[in-house]
Amino acid sequence: TQLLEQSPQFLSIQEGENLTVYCNSSSVFSSLQWYRQEPGEGPVLLVTVVTGGEVKKLKRLTFQFGDARKDSSLHITAAQTGDTGLYLCAGERGGGSQGNLIFGKGTKLSVKP
Amino acid sequence: ETGVTQTPRHLVMGMTNKKSLKCEQHLGHNAMYWYKQSAKKPLELMFVYSLEERVENNSVPSRFSPECPNSSHLFLHLHTLQPEDSALYLCASSQEAPAGGGTYEQYFGPGTRLTVT
């Protein structure tokens, strides 16, 4: 069974601090996606990483896919209160069939003013 | 309307009721999904429809019955649910990747918060 473990499960920081959250698996994924979900809403796609070692930046967010395509990290620089939410990673199993995303349980981030 | 919409946003139902959840996508996608999101559990995929045909059913109890009349609409019919079925039900859509590759970037609706009493 392919599992995605996300850590930490909860994170509470002050505005302006930096943070990193992790998404780890013992399995290889053909791609990995990061979503942010705010209370009462559905997840919103932030980025997809495909190539081992790939780094993508989205303003203050930096996403990295591990060389072996088994893990990923999300680093936020100078966090803002608007970054508060549940961060989910999802790995694509590949194999060509639909619905091949495996989701982690998420990291719940709270950024305090 | 843009993106993926879901109605109702909140639903409270008794165990003997019958209700339906509705999802509509305005993105021109050809695949749609139902997920269940419970506290302390990862998102659980329930059903997948690709080109209006059900392609996956992850051992979901028969009290949940999906329907996909066309590529833009998806329903989840609910009948004699249990309290443990209380959760956020999320609909998503994606564009089916070409054979042999592609990524399944899914676009989610806001969800229906279901409470079974």
Describe the fold and architecture.
Chain A is an all-beta fold and 113 residues long. In chain A, 0% of the residues lie in helices and 52% in strands. In chain A, a hairpin with a 2-residue loop joins strand 6 and strand 7 (61-65). In chain A, 36% of the residues are buried. The mean pLDDT of chain A is 92. Chain B has 117 residues and is mainly β. In chain B, strands 2, 4, 5, 6, 9, 10 and 11 form a 7-stranded mixed β-sheet that branches. Chain B has a 4-stranded antiparallel β-sheet with strand order 1-3-8-7, with no helix packed on it. In chain B, a hairpin with a 2-residue loop joins strand 5 and strand 6. Chain B is globular, with a radius of gyration of 14 Å. The mean pLDDT of chain B is 88. Classes of the chains: A mainly beta (113), B mainly beta (117). The interface between A and B is medium-sized, with 27 and 32 residues.
Write the layout of secondary structure elements.
The complex is a heterodimer of chains A (113) and B (117).
Chain A (H helix, E strand, L loop, with lengths): L4 E3 L2 E5 L4 E6 L6 E7 L6 E6 L5 E4 L2 E5 L5 E6 L8 E8 L8 E3 L3 E6 L1
Parallel strand pairs in A: 2-11
Antiparallel strand pairs in A: 1-3, 3-8, 4-5, 4-9, 6-7, 7-8, 9-10, 9-11
Chain B lengths: L3 E4 L2 E4 L4 E8 L5 E7 L6 E7 L2 E5 L6 E7 L2 E7 L7 E8 L12 E2 L3 E5 L1
Parallel strand pairs in B: 2-11
Antiparallel strand pairs in B: 1-3, 3-8, 4-5, 4-9, 5-6, 7-8, 9-10, 9-11
Number of helices of chain A: 0
Q: CA-to-CA gap between the ends of chain B? A: 32 Å
Query: In angstroms, what is the radius of gyration of chain A?
Result: 14 Å
Largest interface: A-B, 27 and 32 residues
Report strand % of chain A: over 45%
Shape of chain A: globular
The major beta sheet of chain B can be summarized as: 7 strands, mixed
Q: Helicity level of chain A, as a percent range?
A: under 10%
Gyration radius over CA of chain B: 14 Å
Total beta strand runs of chain B: 11
Report the β-strand fraction of chain B as a percent range.
Answer: over 45%
Structural class of chain B: mainly beta
Number of helices of chain B: 0
Look at the structure and give the mean pLDDT of chain B: 88
The tally of beta strands of chain A, per DSSP, is 11
Give helix % range of chain B. under 10%
